[in-house]
Design a protein that fits this description.
CATH class of the largest domain: Mainly Beta
Helix content: 10-25%
Strand content: 25-35%
Strand order of the largest sheet: 1-3-4-7-6-5
Radius of gyration: 28 Å
Largest sheet: 6 strands, antiparallel, barrel
Number of strands: 27
Structural class: alpha+beta
Length: 481
Amino acid sequence: MEKAKGFKTGFVTAVLAMAILGIGYGMSAALRTPPAAVAAPAHSETPMVPANFSDLAEKVRPGVVNIQVVKKVENVRFAFPNAPMNPFGEDGPFGRFFEGFPPADQKQEGVGSGFVISQEGFILTNNHVIDGAEQIKVKFANGKEYDAKVVGRDSKTDLALVKISGVNDLHPLPLGNSEDLKVGSWVVAVGSPFGLEQTVTQGIVSGKGRVIGSGPYDDFIQTDASINPGNSGGPLINMKGEVIGINTAINPNGQGIGFAIPIDMAKSIIPQLEQKGTVTRGWLGVSIQQMTPALEKSFGLKDKSGILVAEVSQGSPAEKAGIERGDVITQFDGKDVAEPRDLSRIVASTPVGKSVNVKIMRDGNMLERTVKVGEMEKKPETAQAPSKKSLGITVQELTPEIARGLGLKRETGVVVTEVEPGSSAADAGIQTGDVIQQVNRKPVKDLEDFHQKIEQAKGQDSVLLLIQRGQNSLFAAVTPK
């Protein structure tokens, strides 16, 4: 009893002492507050964990829209037997947020997301959401729906601009600065995953500058905010309520791994989409590669900063400026370049016709050259009539996304998107989704190269095609008609 009494007296004394110091149980504000709402130390202006996201969600919801589209089947004709819902394959390393549909249907209905960027009715979304759409409807949080039309789109960055008219009470979302975004910052994703409109999820920025193989200008923000099919085109919001990214891709084989296009990239091309409907990119005319320790030693460099020029195109801006094979480009237009993708993005975003200063290392000497940036040639995305008339097939450029969806390691060749019934190609067993890698035993680089080789084969009794189908290769002899 005496021990118990002593323990009790000591406990009460300790509690009183803690209360006097302001740290007692039930007396401390920190202990009364749930763990998720504990504020950062007094010296920090931002809470380590926000108390809740409801105010932020209410603030941005009026500017976020659900996008519903109707597409033609032939625009995504990957009609494999027992094909999954996703036309790029559910087992691909990265899945799009756009729902796929059975290829047997005459029309496809899909759902995505977007957000208002101006009082004039302009809405930003992903290109893959509206690509090939015959009809686009935009639905707001208040339930109102409007017809929308495509103003401009860019497949290389997977961005598109659509517009609605006759609406006066719009709530554009402010665009932030993704360059200043820091890893670990809190973010909120808003969209329509699986058609569940105005879904809000929270997380942090897990990484920046991610390359996922979706295109030549990969520079994604990685986040663990929960995002799913249907979130495509929706905004990624910072704690100020500003858009800092456009949700675009997920990794279906992982959890908490999603990707968003930096808003700074979008801001640089929105004016072109609005004014011209397409994006014009700068062109330098060089083939480049990453420096390695071995190359660094061979070229006598002290460090591997810079990009090695492997080839210079004849008549290109680079050749006219005096840039040569073996030069190491260290700076372009005042911006340092450390990786090939850095130079590709910087050159592409440089206005055509602009004269810029380029710093290069040659034989251990730092040189400067002035380059007048040219215009990047736009390649056609679908085959022209000749191949369909002569072989009975329609083919398309083999993009990184399609190659990935088909499980291919290489991105050379063209993919068959349509086979005409009763044609020579159909008789030879060619199917949609086949990748043509050779014509008459000669490699096919891209769509233009394919057309050239088919043109050269005119008058022959048959054209020998090397086909990649899944993990298998096979030859098909097609008789031109």
